[in-house]
């Protein structure tokens, strides 16, 4: 569905993407993880034909990005922060505008609003919506023309956990329908839950990529099993021959309250590779 090969991009002499390489297959959810300023939004703009690049090869739908037709571009849906809604218009009227742009019948608007859980607020002004409802309205706009490829740039940023779970459910439903989804996020838990594969982006360079579980196993240097016992004691057992017998003894006497292996999470892996956290308290321009 998407292929990037050795892609570079600079602004005013500063390199913001350097040697980007990855492929995304049909029906995958691919996550691009990195802190603000890492180059995530720049890459989306390149992949959607909004921004040129300096060097490399980019193909979408097996076509060079520069030769994509209008019909190809209609098969792409994009949700980005700067693509806002019209505050004074109702949800329905917002979607009517985009229905006209994409040439789709307006009679699908109500079913699209129902799909994202906004069926009962279609007549309300967008300015009266909560942040979570606005996010779902943006998703409705993306889904309305049934795109094959969907780009979601930080779709749950700043949302409460309940709304985030609702958005996740909608995204997974789209995957079941066969959509390919390119997701940018700095939320490690979100990426681990949703993505088939992820790439870790730091200062314009992909420092690691693969299935989330495989990446975490790859950087499991400790290889231990930790148990918390009903006595309050914590027991750490090296993951080696003989460990099963020791764990079995604790299981047989019912003394284990919790048991965990030592695999790191994506946040820990990113910190190990870059010395930075995926979410950093810094003022940084989005590029």
Strand order of the largest sheet: 6-7-8-3-9-10
Helix content: 25-40%
* SSE arrangement, N to C: EEEHEEHEHHHEHEHEEHEEHEH
Q: What is the name of the CATH class of the domain at 2-75 and 147-217 and 266-274?
A: Alpha Beta
Terminal CA distance reads 24 Å
Q: Could you give the count of β-strands?
A: 13
How much of the sequence lies in strands comes to 25-35%
Sheet with most strands: 6 strands, mixed
Q: In the CATH classification, which architecture of the domain at 2-75 and 147-217 and 266-274 applies?
A: 3-Layer(aba) Sandwich
Q: For this structure, what is the CATH homologous superfamily of the domain at 2-75 and 147-217 and 266-274? A: P-loop containing nucleotide triphosphate hydrolases
Low-confidence stretches: 281-287
Report Rg.
Answer: 22 Å
Given helix and strand content, the structural type is alpha/beta
Count of runs of 4 or more consecutive helical residues: 10
Which topology of the domain at 2-75 and 147-217 and 266-274 does CATH recognise? Rossmann fold
What spatial form do the alpha-carbon principal axes imply?
globular
Q: How confident overall, as mean pLDDT?
A: 88
